[in-house]
Specification:
Helix content is about 35%, strand content about 15%. It is an alpha/beta fold. The strands form two sheets. Strands 1-7-6-5-4-2-3 form a seven-stranded mixed β-sheet. It has a five-stranded mixed β-sheet with strand order 8-9-12-11-10, with helices on one face. Helix 2 runs parallel beside helix 9, helix 3 crosses helix 4 and helix 12 crosses helix 14. The structure holds pyridoxal-5'-phosphate. Pyridoxal-5'-phosphate (PLP) binds next to helix 3.
Length: about 375
C-alpha cells in the first residue's frame, strides 16, 4: 500500500490520505458528535464522537504510522494523554520516572494518582544498572523522557526497554522533545510513546493536544477502552490542525535543529555563559547514546549565565525571543524552569536534580539564526552587573 519509504513522505501521505468521497486532498473536519443509524444495530462504523471520529481517526492512524506502532490515540492535551496511560495501573502499583520528567507528569502522579494508591519514585534513568535495582515487585512501568526536561539529560531508551522486557513491565517514553522525525522509541523496544502534540507536532503554538502510540494489540485495546471510558478526546477541528502541522514537521525541524546548533555553539563560546546543556554538543552528557538513538540533538537548549549576570534583566531585555511557557513552535521561546515549567516540583527536589534558579531554557524557533544570536547578545550584555 505504501508507495514511499521515508518519514518525510509519511508525514504528508501517512495515515488516511484525503477524502474518498470528494477527492479533497485533506481529511475533512467531521464536526459532528453523532452518526445516524440505518436501523437498530446497523451503523456506519461510527456511533458517537467520543468513541470515534473520522478526523481524529485520521490523526490517530498518522501518528501510529509515524511512530511505527500498532495504534494511536488523540487526547485534548498531553496531560490527558499521560492521565489515560497512567490509568492502566491500579492500587499498589508503582511507576519509576526520570528525575527530569515534565513538571505536570510529576504533579499528576504526586497529587492525583497517589490518592488512588498508585505510587511513583524518581530515579536516575541514565544509569540502567542502578535503575534495575529499583525494580521491586510493585513496579509496573518505567516512564522516561530523552532528552529530559529541562537539562536535556539523555537516557538509553533501548537499555530501559530491555530492562522493562526482562522484568515484564512497561517502558513508556514521552517523546515530545524529539518527535518521530528525530527519534522512534517503539523501534528501540518501548511499549508506549506519549506526546504533548501542543509542541513540535502542532508546531505553531495554536493548539493543545496529546497523543499516545502503543506497540501491540493488547495495549491498543486497553488504551481504546480507557480513551472512551475517561473521555479526554481531541476534537475534530484540533485534530485537523494537528494533521496540518505534522505535514511540515520535517522541514520545520530541519530548520529548528540547524538554528539550535548555531545558537548552542554561540552560547558555548560566550564568556557570560557558565554551562550549556544541548545533546548535540560533543561534550554533552549522553552525546554518544543520543547519536545512536536519535537523528540529532533536537532544538531545545538550556544554559546558565555566570553569577555576575542578572537573570531577571536578561529575560526582560529579550525583544525577539518571547518569555513564555511551552516549546516547539515556529517562534523562539525562553523560560525560567524554576519558577515556570518546574515550579510544581518542590525546591529541594529541584536543587537535587539540578534545576537551579539560574537555569534558562530556550526553545529555538525557525527565525533567522543571526537574529536570534543578536537578540541573545543584546540581552546578555544588558544583564551584566557592572
Ligand atoms: C508540555 C509537555 C507535556 C504536557 O502536555 P500538554 O499538552 O501541555 O498537556 C508533557 N510532557 C512534556 C515533555 C511536555 O513538554
Amino acid at each position: 500500500m505504501a508507495v514511499y519509504k521515508s518519514i518525510e513522505s509519511a508525514l504528508i501521505h501517512g495515515g488516511i490520505y484525503g477524502d474518498q468521497h470528494t477527492g479533497a486532498v485533506n481529511v475533512p473536519i467531521y464536526q459532528t458528535s453523532t452518526y445516524e443509524q440505518k436501523g437498530l444495530g446497523e451503523n456506519t462504523g461510527w456511533e458517537y464522537s467520543r468513541t470515534g471520529n473520522p478526523t481524529r481517526a485520521a490523526l490517530e492512524a498518522l501518528i501510529a504510522e509515524l511512530e511505527g506502532g500498532t495504534a494511536g490515540f488523540a487526547f485534548g492535551s498531553g496531560m490527558a494523554a499521560i492521565t489515560a496511560v497512567l490509568s492502566l495501573f491500579r492500587e499498589g502499583d508503582r511507576v519509576l520516572i526520570s528525575s527530569n520528567v515534565y513538571g505536570g507528569t510529576f504533579r499528576v502522579l504526586d497529587k492525583v494518582f497517589k490518592n488512588f494508591g498508585i505510587g511513583y519514585s524518581i530515579e536516575d534513568t541514565t544509569d540502567p544498572e542502578a535503575l534495575e535495582k529499583k525494580i521491586t515487585p510493585e513496579v509496573r512501568a518505567i516512564l522516561v523522557e530523552s532528552p529530559a526536561n529541562p537539562l536535556l539529560t539523555i537516557t538509553d531508551l533501548a537499555a530501559v526497554a530491555a530492562l522493562a522486557k526482562k522484568h515484564r513491565i512497561l517502558s513508556i517514553v514521552d517523546n515530545t522533545f524529539m518527535t518521530p522525525y528525530l527519534q522512534r522509541p517503539i523501534e528501540l523496544g518501548a511499549d508506549i510513546v506519549i506526546h504533548s502534540a501542543t509542541k513540535y507536532l502542532g508546531g505553531h503554538s495554536d493548539l493543545v493536544a496529546g497523543l499516545v502510540v502503543v506497540s501491540d494489540r493488547a495495549l491498543a485495546e486497553r488504551l481504546a477502552f480507557l480513551q472512551n471510558a475517561t473521555g479526554g478526546v481531541l476534537g475534530p477541528f484540533d485534530s485537523f490542525l494537528l494533521i496540518r502541522g505534522i505535514k511540515t514537521l520535517g522541514v520545520r525541524l530541519d530548520r529548528h535543529v540547524e538554528n539550535a546548533e548555531a545558537v548552542a555553539a554561540y552560547l558555548q563560546g560566550h564568556k557570560a555563559v557558565k554551562k550549556v546543556y544541548y545533546p548535540g554538543l560533543p561534550d554533552a552528557q549522553g552525546y554518544e547514546i543520543n547519536r545512536k538513538q536519535a537523528k540529532n540533538g533536537g532544538a531545545m537548549i538550556s544554559f546558565e549565565l555566570k553569577e555576575n549576570y542578572d537573570i531577571r534583566k536578561f529575560f526582560s531585555s529579550l525583544r525577539l525571543i518571547a518569555l513564555a511557557e511551552s516549546l516547539g513552535g515556529v517562534e523562539s521561546l525562553v523560560c525560567h524552569p524554576a519558577s515556570m515549567t518546574h515550579a510544581s516540583i518542590p525546591y529541594e527536589i529541584r536543587q537535587k536534580v539540578g534545576i537551579t534558579d539560574g537555569l534558562i531554557r530556550l526553545s529555538v524557533g525557525i527565525e533567522n539564526a543571526g537574529d536570534l544570536k543578536a537578540d541573545l547578545e543584546n540581552a546578555i550584555s544588558e544583564s551584566e552587573v557592572r
